[in-house]
Write a structure and sequence with these properties.
single chain; 275 residues; mainly alpha; two-stranded antiparallel sheet; 10 helices
């Protein structure tokens, strides 16, 4: 079996482990509950019901998907160490970097399935909204406009980037600290425009520190842009949104961060002493 086969075997095993975690089903139920609340609120505000429905659905995918990515990232790798099953794994002809990459690929499978559930829920809610006489234009791809497709894909890339962040911290820290670090970086990473504004106003050591932070923190704002400024322009799901060129660049940006974080996690995990 080549290294791809070994990585795939670890990924499938990780997927099976993850689907046995009951907490995931609770989060899925919570996402559907939030979307249901969004539908209910949109019914109360007929003028903006379609807008509210889209905003709640896309925001739910990004936020809850990122939380799940952090949870899986800090648990799935560490649990092998805690149960000491890592000793039997690394005694086999499996490189440690293959184990780390396999774990991440397995997480990607889980997150992809969950994202499909979330998107399916969003479609179902919108279909239900249409059934109740929404003003959504059916000719607009039925329920999914081009802007929603772009925003959903960007949210998915952001989730995979957050998963790589969690795996990176999990490669050298406990689940509690890894979760704390990953959540902190997730929060700060969504505030990069504010950090850029602070860096532009500050001089001296404070400005240098903020600029340094911008270099070592992934710009997660890149993946959640509706209602924000991009290149000085206001973008929105309901109006002028970014083009596919931006989506392609953002995807490449996320892929570079994922590759870099996984490479660092592999190096750290390779040097880690499990005795």
């Amino acid at each position: 079996m080549g290294f791809l086969g070994r990585i795939w075997a670890i990924a499938l095993n990780t997927f099976r482990e993850a689907v046995r975690m009951r907490v995931l089903y609770g989060i899925i139920a919570l996402v559907f509950l939030v979307n249901g609340v969004g539908l209910f609120m949109s019914e109360m505000n007929l003028a903006d019901q379609t807008r509210m429905m889209r905003d709640v659905a896309v925001s739910s995918i990004s936020f809850f998907g990122s939380l799940i990515a952090i949870f899986l990232g800090v648990v799935l790798l560490y649990v092998e160490v805690q149960r000491r099953t890592i000793h039997s794994i690394i005694s086999k002809p499996i490189e440690r970097w293959e184990f780390v990459v396999g774990k991440y690929v397995g997480m990607t499978l889980v997150l992809s399935v969950l994202a499909a559930f979330f998107i399916g829920g969003m479609l179902a809610m919108m279909m239900l909204d249409i059934g109740h006489g929404s003003d959504l234009v059916k000719g607009e791809l039925g329920v999914m406009s081009s802007n929603v497709v772009k925003a959903t894909w960007l949210a998915y890339v952001g989730i995979l980037t957050v998963a790589a962040v969690a795996i990176f911290f999990s490669s050298f820290s406990s689940p509690f600290l890894s979760g704390l670090f990953a959540l902190g970086l997730f929060a700060v990473g969504n505030l990069t425009p504010d950090l850029q504004a602070i860096a532009a106003k500050q001089s001296g050591l404070a400005g240098a520190v903020v600029k340094g932070m911008l270099w070592v923190i992934p710009d997660l704002h890149t993946f959640v842009i509706s209602g924000r400024e991009v290149a000085g322009q206001h973008v929105s799901l309901h109006g002028g949104f970014v083009g596919w060129e931006y989506v392609t660049q953002a995807t490449a940006y996320g892929a570079l961060w994922i590759a870099g974080l996984l490479a660092l996690a592999c190096v750290i995990f390779q040097r880690r002493d499990f005795v």
